[in-house]
Write a structure and sequence with these properties.
hydrolase, endonuclease activity, Rossmann fold, Endonuclease MutS2, DNA_mismatch_repair_MutS_C, ribosomal large subunit binding, 6-stranded mixed beta sheet, 5-stranded antiparallel beta sheet, MutS, DNA mismatch repair protein, Chain A, domain 3, alpha/beta
C-alpha cells in the first residue's frame, strides 16, 4: 500500500493510537512499521493470531509483558568481544525472565483447553536461558550494582574496603573531636575529595596538619587537606579499590562472554517478545474501540454491520451497515455536500486497511471484509501549491495514476468525483471514470453531488445508488447511510426552514424541471418507505427471535418434564408401598401382642375377632400400582397411524401423530412443539382433519409482564448502559417466572461478557450460568438459570 493512501485514509493516526498500548520499545518499533498485508493467507493468520490474543486477554485480564528491553545492541557488542555494563546485563536478565513468564503463562492457558495454536507455536521457540538469567541475578542487583557475592575475591575485597574506610574515618573523627581542632577547622566533618578522605581546614592553619591539599573552597578560606597521618591509610584504601574495580571488570567480561554464547537464543527471544507485545497491543486497542474480528475472503465481498470510524468518539459516531461485492460491485453515494459521505468512504477504506494489518475492526460480530491487492483513494481537497495545480487538476493527476494501476483485485474510493470544473463536463467525466473502473472488475465506492449520476445506478448492472440521510427538521445530516436510495437536494426545504420568503421559493421551483421535481418526490417516498420497511423488518426479526427462543425453551422444558415424570411417579409409588408394608408390619405386631395378652391375662378376645381385625387392616391398604398403571386404562386398544388426532394423556393436550420413531414411541405435534410420546400414553380421538381446528397450543408462558423477552441483546451497547439493562432485565424475568433466559453479549473483546457474568455470579436469584451451545450462539451468549 502506498504511504499516501495510508495517510489519506488516516491509517497513520490509527498507528499513533496503537502505540499507546505497547509495553516496550520492541512493540512500538513493530507498530511504527505496521502496514497492511496483501497476502490472503497471511491476513487470515494475522486475524487468527489477534483473536487468540483477545481470548487470552478476555480469560486472564492481563499478560506478563513488563520487563522487556531491546537487547539487540547488547548482544551484538558482546559477540564482538565488548564488555557489557551492569545495566545492560540486567536488561538481558529481565528480558529472559519475561520470556519464561510468557511461555509458562500461555502454556497454562492451553492446558485449560483454550485453543491458542498460533501463540503456542511462537512461545515453543523460546528456550528458557535460566542459567544465564541466574548468573546475572547472582552477580548484579536490579539497580545495576555488582553484588558482593559475585565472587569470593570481590567479597573479600569489599570486606577489606569497609574495614579500611572505618579505620580512616575513626582516625579523622578523633582528630576533629580534639579541643584544638575547633578553631582550626571550618567545620567538624569528614568529607571526600578525589576518592580520598579529607578534613576542611582554615587557610591560616594549613601547616598544622601537614599532608596533601586536594581542594579549596570558592572563597579560598577553607582548604580540604588529607592529613599526613592518614596518607598511608588512604593509599591502602585506593589500592583495594583498584583491585575491586579489576575484579568487577573481570566479572562483567565473564558475563558478557556468557551472553555471547546464547546469541541465537536471545535473538529468538527478542523476536517473539516483540511480536507478542505487538499482538496484545492490537487487542488492547481493539477493546478500546469496541472492535471485533472480521471474517476474511479473497473474493471482494464486504459486509460491515454497524461499522464505526475508529477515530471518532464512540458516543458521537454514527454506525452504518456497508455492503459491497455480492450483488453489486459499485456504490454511488449521491446528494448535496451535507457531511457524512466522506466519513463513510473513510470508514470503509480504514476498516479494510485495519483488517489487512491484522487489527480487529470497529463493527459488530459477523462482519466480513476482503483482502485487496491494492486500495486507492482520491479523497479531500489536495490542491498542489508546489505544482501550481488547481483542485480539479490535482484530483485528475491522482485519478490518472489510479486508472494506470487499478485491476479486479482493487478497492477504489472516489470523493466528489469530477468536482472542481464545469458541472456538465464534470458529471460526464465522472460517469466515464466510473465505467472504466467498474468494467475492470474493481470494487468502487464514489461520492458525488451531481444529479446526473442518480440515474447511473439504474442504468448499470452491478451498480447501487446510495445517499446519506438528511434531517430537514434539524437542518443537519444524520450520517446514516441509505443503500439503494439516491440523494436528493434539500435546498428548498432548508431555505424554507431558515425563513426564506415562500414567494421566492415558489419562483425557484418554477425554474426546476417537472422531471426533477418528480424525481425528488420519488426519492422522498423511497426514503419513507425504506424507513418503514426497516422498522417492520426489525420488529419482525424481534418477534421471530422471541418465538424461536420460546419454542426452544418450551420444548426443552417439556422434554425435561417428560423424562422426570415417570421416575417421580415410581418413587412416589415405592414410598407409598413402603408406608403400607410398615403399617402391615405394625398391625401384625399388634395382633401378636393381643394374642399374648389373651393367653397370659385371659382377656376375652375371640380368635375370629382377631382374624377379622387383621382382614380389615389389610383391606385398608390401597393397591399400589407402578407409574405405567396409574394412567387411565379405559382407552381401548387401537392401531395408530400417522395423521391421527390423539390425546396425550400425560399432558392432557391434543396433538397429531407425525411418525412412529420406535416400537412403542410416536412423534407427536402439539401446537408448535414436536415431541416423542409412548404409545400407552396416547388416546385415539379421530382423523386429523375433523379435529385439527380444535387443537390448542401446549402452553403459554405468562408472568406479571407477558412482554418480557426470553433473551436480551446487548451487542453495540456501552459497558455501563449494558450492565444497567442486565440488572433491570433479570428483575423482569424473575417477575415473569422464567426458569431460564439468554443474554447476548457477542464475542468481541470479552470485556462486556466478563462484566455481565461477574454480575450474574453475584446475583442471589441466579442458580448457574453457562455459555450457549453451538446452536445457541456459543461463547457470544450466556444462558442464565434461576433458582
Amino acid at each position: 500500500m502506498k504511504d499516501r493512501v495510508l495517510k489519506v485514509l488516516e491509517f497513520t493516526k490509527v498507528r499513533e493510537q496503537l502505540l499507546e498500548h505497547a509495553s516496550s520499545s520492541l512493540g512500538r518499533d513493530k507498530i511504527k512499521n505496521l502496514v497492511p498485508s496483501t497476502d490472503y493467507d497471511e491476513v487470515v493468520k494475522l486475524q487468527a493470531e489477534t483473536d487468540e490474543a483477545a481470548t487470552v486477554l478476555r480469560i486472564k485480564g492481563n499478560v506478563p509483558l513488563s520487563g522487556i528491553h531491546d537487547i539487540r545492541p547488547h548482544i551484538k557488542r558482546s559477540v564482538i568481544g565488548g564488555v557489557l555494563s551492569p545495566h545492560e546485563l540486567v536488561q538481558i536478565s529481565s528480558t529472559i525472565h519475561t520470556s519464561r513468564q510468557m511461555k509458562r503463562f500461555l502454556e497454562e492457558i492451553a492446558e485449560e483447553r483454550t485453543e491458542i495454536p498460533i501463540l503456542l507455536e511462537q512461545v515453543d521457540q523460546i528456550i528458557p536461558l535460566t542459567n544465564l538469567e541466574q548468573a546475572i541475578k547472582m552477580a548484579i542487583d536490579e539497580s545495576g550494582e555488582v553484588l558482593d557475592g559475585a565472587s569470593e575475591l570481590l567479597r573479600s575485597l569489599r570486606h577489606q574496603l569497609r574495614t579500611s574506610e572505618a579505620r580512616v574515618r575513626e582516625k579523622l573523627e578523633s582528630m576533629i573531636r580534639s579541643s584544638s581542632a575547633q578553631k582550626m577547622l571550618s567545620d567538624a566533618i569528614v568529607t571526600i575529595r578525589n576518592d580520598r578522605f579529607v578534613i576542611p581546614v582554615k587557610q591560616e592553619y594549613r601547616g598544622h596538619y601537614g599532608g596533601i591539599i586536594h581542594d579549596q573552597s570558592s572563597s579560598g578560606q577553607t582548604l580540604f587537606i588529607e592529613p599526613q597521618v592518614i596518607v598511608q591509610l588512604n593509599n591502602q584504601l585506593q589500592d583495594i579499590r583498584v583491585k575491586e574495580q579489576l575484579e568487577i571488570e573481570r566479572i562483567l567480561i565473564e558475563l558478557s562472554a556468557k551472553a555471547a554464547e546464547y546469541e541465537s537464543e536471545l535473538q529468538v527471544i527478542v523476536k517473539i517478545l516483540a511480536n507478542l507485545d505487538f499482538v496484545f497491543a492490537k487487542v488492547r486497542y481493539g477493546r478500546k474501540i469496541k472492535a471485533s474480528m472480521p471474517a476474511m475472503n479473497n473474493e471482494g465481498r464486504i459486509s460491515l454491520y454497524k461499522a464505526r470510524h475508529p477515530l471518532i468518539p464512540i458516543d458521537e459516531v454514527v454506525a452504518n451497515d456497508i455492503m459491497l461485492g455480492k450483488d453489486y460491485s459499485t456504490i454511488v453515494i449521491t446528494g448535496p455536500n451535507t457531511g457524512g459521505k466522506t466519513v463513510t468512504l473513510k470508514t470503509l477504506g480504514l476498516c479494510t486497511l485495519m483488517a489487512q494489518a491484522g487489527l480487529q475492526v470497529p463493527a459488530l460480530d459477523g462482519s466480513e471484509l476482503a483482502v485487496f491487492g491494492a486500495v486507492y483513494a482520491d479523497i479531500g481537497d489536495e490542491q498542489s501549491i508546489e505544482q501550481s495545480l488547481s483542485t480539479f487538476s490535482s484530483h485528475m493527476v491522482n485519478i490518472v495514476d489510479i486508472l494506470d494501476r487499478v485491476d479486479f483485485n482493487s478497492l477504489v474510493l472516489f470523493d466528489e468525483l469530477g468536482a472542481g470544473t464545469d458541472p456538465q463536463e464534470g458529471a460526464a467525466l465522472a460517469i466515464s471514470i466510473l465505467d472504466e473502473v467498474h468494467n475492470r472488475g474493481a470494487r468502487v465506492v464514489a461520492t458525488t453531488h451531481y444529479p446526473e449520476l442518480k440515474a447511473y445506478g439504474y442504468n448499470r448492472e452491478g451498480v447501487l445508488n446510495a445517499s446519506v440521510e438528511f434531517d430537514v427538521e434539524t437542518l443537519s445530516p444524520t450520517y446514516k447511510l441509505l443503500l439503494g436510495v439516491p440523494g436528493r437536494s434539500n435546498a428548498f426545504e432548508i431555505s424554507k426552514r431558515l425563513g426564506l420568503n415562500e414567494r421566492v421559493i415558489g419562483a425557484a421551483r418554477s425554474h426546476v424541471s417537472e422531471d426533477t421535481n418528480q424525481i425528488d418526490k420519488m426519492i422522498a417516498s423511497l426514503e419513507e418507505s425504506r424507513r418503514q420497511a426497516e422498522n417492520d423488518r426489525d420488529e419482525a426479526l424481534d418477534y421471530l427471535k422471541q418465538a424461536e427462543k420460546l419454542h426452544k425453551d418450551l420444548q426443552q422444558q417439556m422434554i425435561e418434564f417428560y423424562e422426570k415424570k415417570d421416575s417421580m411417579l415410581e418413587k412416589a409409588a415405592e414410598k407409598a408401598e413402603e408406608i403400607v408394608v410398615e403399617a402391615k408390619r405394625e398391625a401384625e405386631q399388634v395382633i401378636r401382642e393381643l394374642r399374648k395378652m389373651r393367653t397370659e391375662k385371659h382377656a376375652d378376645i375371640k380368635e375370629h375377632e382377631l382374624i377379622e381385625a387383621k382382614r380389615r387392616l389389610e383391606g385398608a391398604a390401597p393397591e399400589i400400582k407402578k407409574s405405567d398403571k396409574l394412567i387411565n386404562k379405559k382407552t381401548k386398544k387401537y392401531t395408530f397411524t400417522p395423521g391421527d388426532e390423539v390425546k396425550v394423556l400425560t399432558f392432557n393436550q391434543n396433538g397429531i401423530l407425525v411418525d412412529k420413531v420406535s416400537g412403542d414411541e410416536w412423534q407427536v405435534q402439539i401446537g408448535i412443539l414436536k415431541m416423542k410420546v409412548r404409545e400407552k400414553d396416547l388416546e385415539y380421538i379421530g382423523a386429523s382433519q375433523t379435529k385439527q381446528t380444535e387443537m390448542k397450543p401446549l402452553a403459554i408462558v405468562r408472568g406479571r409482564d407477558s412482554n418480557v423477552k426470553l433473551e436480551l441483546d446487548l451487542r453495540g451497547e456501552r459497558y455501563e448502559d449494558a450492565l444497567l439493562k442486565v440488572e433491570k432485565y433479570i428483575d423482569d424475568a424473575l417477575l415473569a417466572n422464567y426458569p431460564r433466559v439468554s443474554i447476548i453479549h457477542g464475542k468481541g473483546t470479552g470485556a462486556l461478557r466478563q462484566g455481565v457474568q461477574e454480575y450474574l455470579r453475584n446475583h442471589r436469584s441466579v442458580k448457574k450460568i453457562r455459555f450457549g451451545e453451538a446452536g445457541e450462539g456459543g461463547s457470544g451468549v450466556t444462558v442464565v438459570e434461576f433458582k
